Each structure stands twice: as structure tokens, then as C-alpha cells.
């Protein structure tokens, strides 16, 4: 294949499996892969900082893997997310790039802690469209399935998704993988629902290029490769890009979409950029590659923030001025102080406008969405309103 060949004749979407650990996300991903003859990309998340305490076996389970496949109408990049609480960072940094998601809920176990947390994060980071796979139904009792479906619809309603009309497709990925036609049909029905429910996204290929970096890897003898999903704009081989973080600027020496060499990639494409001569050690997840001069790191902004009530996984206590949780913005996270308006504290359940001062300047812009975490819990979420400095 020449480097100029356009590979994607169909619209491209980014989706993921979300949901609690051991509810069947990886098995479902495998069943879809088997059905549609997908390819697995060599794109596996290295352990995030918070994973380091875990042993190697546990870390293996926390990686997210990406596959690609085509239905009759669409091309999908599908990320199989980890469901463990310790891996939530991967879900947060991946969710910002999703056009839709498959929420996997076991018919045996029903809604569990990370089912709730993933729905919350998806909603807060702007994932507008969900399809539910009610999984492991070959092993479930009818009454348990009905109960699980009711819990799911109530959860979706509680987070602003249409619980009444969201497709809840009963699947057995394990039996489909074993080749049982009836169960293969359930995977086909799920994919039809995704094709129907998730609209083709509108991209912004004409905006200044921006790539939040998911991974940075060394490429022997050549430099480094950074990868992620392009948030906006277009990049061509030879374009100059600035990497905000290490603050280096260079020409893109080559680019790949799913391991295929191309000369151009645009908003929505999962891409890897070769940065010749840049040592891997200066690059990291959370950096931003962008059109030179198009980004200004900022520390102070105002934001519209929803403080999660304790009943939804948040804190029981209010936030007072000077509270310093962690802000998850695109693929990075940074501590910041919260300053509620006037002298009042922000109480769990409040939705209000407040000031934020980050400990490290990071490019932010109005409408950027973020998640606020503290002590291993998602305590709030918000949207940037105005930049203050
Ligand atoms: N009976 C049954 N078991 C399943 C099905 N899908 C997954 N499992 C089992 O559930 C367990 C967890 O599955 P896995 O895909 O790893 O879950 P993940 O943690 O959500 O990725 C494994 O033991 C699977 O074999 C299914 O459709 N039916
Ligand atoms: Mg898994």
C-alpha cells in the first residue's frame, strides 16, 4: 500500500467498552473481533502512575487494548477499557475522545461500582451516546436479567441519558465466541444498535491541529513516537508541531493510522506521529502536540462545576476555599485549588461557578470538560467558562 492510499472509505468512529471488572468487556471485544475479522493495534496503554504499586499480573489486567473493525456502514476504533477501580485514569483519559460507548453490565451481577463511575465519567466528559450490552445472559436467570435491566435504565436516567429508549441488548459473548449461531446473532444485534444509535460525529478538520498524547514510545535509532486520538484539525507528514509539556518543536517525520503509513490524518483519527531525534525521556502521556503557537498554557480559569453528592460516589463534606483536588483534563491530570464564590463552601450536590487555580500551567479553553478526583473518588466534574490568566 502506498502512503497516499486513503484507507477509510467509511466514516470513522471511536468507541469503547465500559463497565465494571469481570462483566465481560474483553470477551465481548473478542467476540466482535471474531465476528468482524478485526485487527488489533499495537496500542496498549502502559501502566499509569497510580498503577505502579500493583504487581505485574495486576497491571496486565489494567491495560486498555484497541481493536479496529468495520460494520456495513462504519469503521470503528474500539478500546476495551479496564474496569478495575485502580485503572480509572485510563477510562477518564480515553472517554474524552469517544463518539459513543458500549456499557457492559453483567446480567448476573447487575449495576456495580464501576458501572456507575463509568456512566458518570462518560456523561461528564461528553460521551453523548451509549448502547448497553446486558452480558453473560446465557448464565442468567430471567428475573435477575429483568432486575439488572431496570437498574441500568434507572442509572442512565439518573445521569441524563435516555434510560427509557437506550438499547439494552442481551448478549452472550462467550457463547458467540464458541460459534453458537443464536448467540452470534446477539453480537450482530448489538453492533446494529451501535450503528443506529451513535450518529456520525462532526469533526473539525479545519481547526488548528491538536493531539492529546496518550502514549510516548521510543523508536530505536529514530527518536520517539507519540500516539493518541486527534482532537481537532489535520496533520500532514512534514508539518511542524509543538509539543506542549517538554516545549519542543519539530517537523512530523512520519505518521501512521492504525499502523498504516499515511501522509495525512485528521480530527477523530487515532494516530501515531514519528518525532525524529526527540528523546523519549522528555515526552509523556498528557503532553499536547499542536500547531505551533496555537496553545497557551494557563493556570487560572472559572468553571461551571457539579459537586457530586456522597450518594453518587462523591464526598460527604463541602469544598471550601483552598481545597486542592486533582483535575483530569484531556489525557493529563494536575492538582488545583478551588475557590468557591464569596465565602461560601460548595456543598455536595451543588452546581455552581467557581474559580480554579492549577498548580501547573496547562492549555485550557472555554468549553473544555474535566473531572475532579480526590482520594481515589470522582468528586465532581465541570466545564471551563472563562480564562483568567
Ligand atoms: N457465561 C458467560 N461467561 C462470560 C461471558 N462473557 C464473559 N464471561 C466470563 O466472565 C469473566 C470475565 O470476563 P471478561 O471479558 O474478562 O470481563 P472484563 O473484566 O469486563 O473484561 C470471564 O471468566 C469470562 O469467561 C458470557 O457471555 N457468558
Ligand atoms: Mg477486560
TrEMBL record:
InterPro entries noted in UniProt: EF-Tu_GTPase, EFTu-like_2, P-loop_NTPase, T_Tr_GTP-bd_dom, Transl_B-barrel_sf, Transl_elong_EF1A/Init_IF2_C, Transl_elong_EFTu/EF1A_C
Gene Ontology cellular component terms for the protein in this record: cytosol
Pfam families membership: GTP_EFTU, GTP_EFTU_D2, GTP_EFTU_D3
Domain of life: Bacteria
PROSITE patterns noted in UniProt: G_TR_2 (PS51722)
Keywords per UniProt: Cytoplasm, Elongation factor, GTP-binding, Nucleotide-binding, Protein biosynthesis
Domain (Tr-type G): residue spans on this chain: 10-202
Coiled-coil regions, chain positions: none
MF term (GO), any: translation elongation factor activity
This protein's name: Elongation factor Tu
Organism: Streptomyces buecherae
Lineage, broadest ranks: Bacteria, Bacillati, Actinomycetota, Actinomycetes, Kitasatosporales
Amino acid at each position: 500500500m502506498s502512503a497516499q492510499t486513503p484507507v477509510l472509505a467509511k466514516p470513522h468512529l471511536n468507541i469503547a467498552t465500559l463497565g465494571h471488572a469481570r462483566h465481560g468487556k474483553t470477551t465481548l471485544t473478542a467476540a466482535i473481533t471474531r465476528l468482524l475479522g478485526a485487527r488489533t493495534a499495537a496500542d496498549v496503554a502502559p501502566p499509569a502512575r497510580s498503577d505502579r504499586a500493583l504487581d505485574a499480573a495486576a497491571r496486565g489486567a489494567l491495560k486498555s487494548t484497541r481493536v479496529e473493525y468495520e460494520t456495513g456502514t462504519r469503521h470503528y476504533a474500539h478500546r476495551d477499557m479496564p474496569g478495575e477501580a485502580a485503572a480509572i485514569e485510563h477510562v477518564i483519559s480515553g472517554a474524552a475522545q469517544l463518539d459513543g460507548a458500549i456499557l457492559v453490565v453483567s446480567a448476573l451481577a447487575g449495576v456495580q461500582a464501576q458501572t456507575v463511575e463509568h456512566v458518570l465519567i462518560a456523561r461528564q466528559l461528553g460521551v453523548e451516546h451509549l448502547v448497553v450490552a446486558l452480558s453473560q445472559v446465557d448464565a442468567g436467570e430471567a428475573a435477575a436479567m429483568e432486575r439488572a435491566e431496570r437498574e441500568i435504565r434507572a442509572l442512565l436516567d439518573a445521569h441524563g441519558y435516555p434510560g427509557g429508549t437506550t438499547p439494552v441488548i442481551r448478549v452472550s459473548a462467550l457463547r458467540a465466541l464458541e460459534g453458537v449461531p443464536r448467540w452470534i446473532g446477539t453480537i450482530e444485534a448489538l453492533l446494529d444498535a451501535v450503528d443506529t444509535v451513535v450518529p456520525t460525529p462532526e469533526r473539525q478538520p479545519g481547526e488548528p491541529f491538536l493531539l492529546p498524547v496518550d502514549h510516548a514510545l521510543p523508536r530505536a535509532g529514530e527518536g520517539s513516537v507519540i500516539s493518541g486520538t486527534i482532537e481537532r484539525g489535520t496533520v500532514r507528514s512534514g508539518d511542524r508541531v509543538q509539543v506542549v509539556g517538554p516545549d519542543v518543536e519539530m517537523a512530523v517525520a512520519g505518521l501512521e493510522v492504525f499502523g498504516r503509513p499515511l501522509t495525512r490524518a485528521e480530527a477523530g483519527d487515532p494516530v501515531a506521529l514519528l518525532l525524529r531525534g526527540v528523546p523519549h525521556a522528555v515526552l509523556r502521556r498528557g503532553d499536547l502536540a499542536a500547531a505551533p503557537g496555537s496553545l497557551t498554557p494557563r493556570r487560572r480559569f472559572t468553571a461551571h462545576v457539579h459537586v457530586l453528592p456522597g450518594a453518587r460516589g462523591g464526598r460527604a463534606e463541602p469544598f471550601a476555599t483552598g481545597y486542592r483536588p486533582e483535575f483530569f483534563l484531556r489525557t493529563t491530570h494536575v492538582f488545583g485549588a478551588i475557590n468557591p464564590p464569596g465565602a461560601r463552601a460548595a456543598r455536595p450536590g451543588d452546581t455552581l461557578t467557581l474559580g480554579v487555580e492549577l498548580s501547573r500551567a496547562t492549555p485550557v479553553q472555554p468549553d473544555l470538560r474535566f473531572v475532579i478526583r480526590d482520594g481515589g473518588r470522582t468528586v465532581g466534574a465541570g466545564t471551563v467558562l472563562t480564562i483568567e490568566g
